[in-house]
Structure prediction request, 79 residues.
Amino acid sequence: MPKLDLHGDDRISAKIKVLDFINDNLKLGNYEVAIIHGIGSGILKREVHKLLRENKMVEEFGIDYFNEGCTLVKISKFN
Prediction:
């Protein structure tokens, strides 16, 4: 499963990386990906989830059951 690690990024760079990551994986045919945002104060997690909620290419997403610092994303095959 492709992974994007956002440790050390700020909100703006994380937003750009997440959008590029989703677009790239859609083109490559990877419909399940992981975004690692870490736990910390939750700023990156909230920003990533807001971005995923607003993105029409994202079918669903949720926190990894075994790692709350990681969000699993399902990209829609029909865009």
In short: The chain has a mean pLDDT of 95. The chain has one domain: 3-75. The two ends are 21 Å apart (CA to CA). The chain has two helices and four strands.
